[in-house]
Task: inverse folding
């Protein structure tokens, strides 16, 4: 492509960092593949979001392995993991924690909720009320929790992996736009290929493969790799291309809600991680194009015309990517 992807003349040090990222990511992916087989792109996107310090939304029909994917990630990384089963009667304090008054000491003590973990699995997040869903907003955006006027910081890495069933299923509440916008990417696991399903009968038949999954890295290493991912170079031309793509969603006649500035930042961060996972210390337009649909589509609302034509946000974003010219170097 004609786009300038010059990486500022940085050499061996940056490449060494990328090689370390690839080595650790390959180990994590290999461990997860013992549980989730035949889904290499799903696992790659999951690791991209982890190293970009984002949050992942897994949306699909029941029974295809959404929860298993999140659990496999938690087992592969030696870090604190908490699971929250979202139900209609779940309260915000059940997630963030609550302050309890001790009469003998005449003081309040904060009892942290399950959100105080490195990886938080929110199972069936859209089965809880919007009020409870909103309890995660501050946690996901600012990595902190405010309870009774006090702010409690969350440790890095902090990643919310939420699963949800399609919104047209019974007993679900559609996620608010502000909530969806805080997820860096959305992925669908999909049904396995026939051979992968045959293999699954053997591997899952007697006992869960999670029982044999041992950690291959830890939270400290992931935090260090995330810092190195943040240093991956994004050339001015690539930055301009990302902004042009996001702006195209805001001006598209097919959309009544385009992508936010947060989406721009998420796309940049995800592209850095995606490039590093491919062994590069600089971002290419190809990285942006590969991530455009999973990073942008879940934030968008189609307009009446698109709904009439049954055009999904994924199809609209793919069309914008196909028609948006890649700018040349200035």
Result:
């Amino acid at each position: 492509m004609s786009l300038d992807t010059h990486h500022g003349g940085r050499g061996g040090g940056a490449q060494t960092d990328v090689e370390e990222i690839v080595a650790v990511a390959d180990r994590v992916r290999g461990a997860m593949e013992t549980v989730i087989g035949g889904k290499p792109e799903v696992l790659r996107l999951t690791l991209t979001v982890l190293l970009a310090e984002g949050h992942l939304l897994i949306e699909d029909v029941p029974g295809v392995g959404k929860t298993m994917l999140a659990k496999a990630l938690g087992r592969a990384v030696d870090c604190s993991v908490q699971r929250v089963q979202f139900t209609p009667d779940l309260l915000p304090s059940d997630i963030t924690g609550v302050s309890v008054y001790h009469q003998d000491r005449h003081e309040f003590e904060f009892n942290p909720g399950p959100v105080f973990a490195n990886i938080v699995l929110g199972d069936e997040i859209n089965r809880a009320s919007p009020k409870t869903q909103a309890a995660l907003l501050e946690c996901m955006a600012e990595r902190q929790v405010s309870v009774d006027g006090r702010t409690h910081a969350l440790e890095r890495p902090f990643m919310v992996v939420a699963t949800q069933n399609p919104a047209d299923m019974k007993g679900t509440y559609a996620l608010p736009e502000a909530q969806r916008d805080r997820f860096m990417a959305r992925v669908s696991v999909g049904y396995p290929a026939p051979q992968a399903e045959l293999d699954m009968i053997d591997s899952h038949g007697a006992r869960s493969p999670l029982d044999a999954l041992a950690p291959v890295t830890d939270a400290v290493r992931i935090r260090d790799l995330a810092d190195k991912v943040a240093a991956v170079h994004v050339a001015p031309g690539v930055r301009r291309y990302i902004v042009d793509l996001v702006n195209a969603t805001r001006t598209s006649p097919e959309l009544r809600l385009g992508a936010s500035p947060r989406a721009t930042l998420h796309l940049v961060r995800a592209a850095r991680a995606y490039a590093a996972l491919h062994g590069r210390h600089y971002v290419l337009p190809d990285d942006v194009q590969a991530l455009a649909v999973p990073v942008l589509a879940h934030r968008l609302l189609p307009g009446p015309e698109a709904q009439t034509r049954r055009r999904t946000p994924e199809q609209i974003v793919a069309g914008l990517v196909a028609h948006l010219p890649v700018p040349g170097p200035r």
Remarks:
- The first strand starts at residue 56 and ends at 59.
